[in-house]
Amino acid sequence: MRADLTERVLRGLYSAALYLLAPVTLYHLIWRGFRQHAYFQRWNERYARYAEGIAPAPLWLHAVSVGEVNAAAPLVNALRSQRPDLRIVVTTITPTGSERVQALWGDAVTHVYLPYDLPGAVGRFLDHFRPALALIVETELWPNLLFGCRDRGIPVHILNARLSARSLRGYRVLAPLIRRALAGVRLVAAQSKDDARRFVALGAPAERVQVTGNLKFDMAPVEAGDFVRDFDVHRAATGPVWIAASTHEDEEAPVLQAHRLLLQSHPDALLLWAPRHPERFRAAAQQARDAGFATATRSGDHWPAAGTQVFVADTLGELLRFYACAQVAFVGGSLQAIGGHNLLEPAATGTAILSGPHLHNFADIARRLREAKAMQVVDDADALAAALRALFDDAAARDQLAANASRLLQDGRGALARTLALIGPVLPAD
Fold first, then answer.
1. Which of 27, 213, 316, 317 has the fewest Cβ atoms surrounding its Cβ within 10 A?
2. Helices within 135-224 (DSSP H only)
3. Which pLDDT does position 3 carry in this prediction?
């Protein structure tokens, strides 16, 4: 009885704080909308108000943004192959995640934005879609959402679960509430032993936590042969190509500085540049032009021409194919304390990998890549330029780095099979 009272008090305080902050969500959507127009659209979904014709779905999968959608793609594809009758609703939070869902599956799945963690919105979402099973990818621990599922008897599985040491510390302010919310989760399928240990420390029952590995290792082969041939034909040049992928705003100046230094020794080098957020596409291209680089864009010029020094990949869904066009990849979110982005994508295309030192979101993968001598870490623009220069001057070393990463990717497969074995018996009958 006392535990129930404590939970009600904690939930009440948390929900009251969210309702007080609810007007801020509107300001947030407007502010983001000026940077990315898609945030002005579909506000009704953010508060779980749905148009007629959006049908319930017995299986619900949540993937916050592009990275999580890509991680979930092998699982969703396998489920659709095994159970073509099963209706699936996929939720994201970001428009880029929404666009990725549309690109991968079109109308074969239903997509809506996950509502804010307000009790009323969560209740409307769950009552509308009536899922029989909830699959949450990686780390999205919204207390009212987890409690709402528990109270309706909806089993929750957290798949490909990861929890960095930094995130664990960040949850401390809500630790008593999160602990109670996690008590209702049926399964935590963790990426690594460290992730599993942190989930248990956060409050997940130890007997419900298993290590299944990282679904990112099970990504589908990249089909990029025709794309690379078109790229090479239109570029009509033989100089080295490197890609700066998933970069954040504070990394843009170091990327351009590294390319400027590289051009001193390799004047025909080309930088492919894929900023992490679409709202930075135009600004990145303009920054490159202002810095004096001959600049082209995917949306405006389609392909880099001879003499292009910087080519901004300002489209969505093509990053893997652009990785395949480069000999070396720098994966962003790592020169500043973002925590890094998916290091296995360039491994899948045979591209040598460079990264900054801030990799806490991918600590296990980064450790394994380092141990396999499959990645190099650089600290700043000068070190990035030096690493690029060395790899372009030593093809054997560059190829060995890429081969080691490819081998690690192949050896790491298996999380998909282990995950399917766990959720297969509890899939809804539809």
1. 27
2. 143-151, 165-170, 175-182, 193-202
3. 62
Residue 104, exposed/middle/buried by CB under 10 A (0-12, 13-18, 19+)?
A: middle
Cα(360)–Cα(336) distance, integer angstroms: 11
Closest CA to 420 of 52, 83, 69: 83
- 404 contacts: CB under 8 Å, gap ≥ 6: 372, 373, 374
Looking at residues 277-299, what average pLDDT do you find?
96
In the chain, the percentage of residues whose pLDDT exceeds 70 is 99
C-beta atoms surrounding 63 within 10 Å: 30
Give 36's pLDDT tier (boundaries 50, 70, 90). Answer: confident
Q: What is the pLDDT of residue 1?
A: 56
Calpha distance 96→365 (Å, rounded)? 24
Task: List the end-to-end C-alpha distance of the chain, in Å, as a whole number.
Answer: 37
Treating both helix axes as pointing N-terminal to C-terminal, what angle do 95-105 and 66-82 enclose, rounded to 10 degrees?
A: 30
pLDDT for residue 2: 65
pTM recorded for the entire structure: 0.91
The two structure tokens encoding residue 133: 């099973």
Question: CB atoms < 10 A from the CB of 20, how many?
Answer: 9
State the catalytic residue, choosing from 7, 45, 52, 68. Answer: 68
Instruction: Give the start-end residues of each E strand in 177-259.
Output: 187-190, 209-211, 241-247
Tokens of 318: 């093509």
Fill in the amino acid letter for 135: L
> Are the C-beta atoms of residues 344 and 364 closer than 8 Å to each other?
no
The mean pLDDT of 403-416, rounded to a whole number, is: 96
Which has the closest alpha carbon to 93: 68, 73, 75, 70? 68
pLDDT at 339: 93
Phi, psi (deg, nearest 5) at residue 425: -65, -15
Over its C-alpha atoms, the chain yields an Rg (Å, rounded) of 22
The residues pairing with 376 across neighbouring beta strands, listed in sequence order, are 354
- pLDDT, greater one: 290 or 171: 290
Collapsing DSSP to helix, strand or coil, 42 comes out as: coil
Listed as own residue / partner, the contacts of 263-267 with beta carbons closer than 8 Å and 24 or more positions apart are: 263/309, 265/389, 266/239, 266/240, 266/389, 266/392, 267/239
Q: CA-to-CA distance for 44 and 92, rounded, in angstroms? A: 14
Identify which of 104, 92, 371 has the alpha carbon closest to the alpha carbon of residue 219. Answer: 104
H or E element in which residue 61 lies: strand 59-62
Paired with 245 in beta bridges are 274, 331
CB 94 within 8 A of CB 165: no
Count the Cβ atoms, other than its own, within 10 Å of residue 422: 15
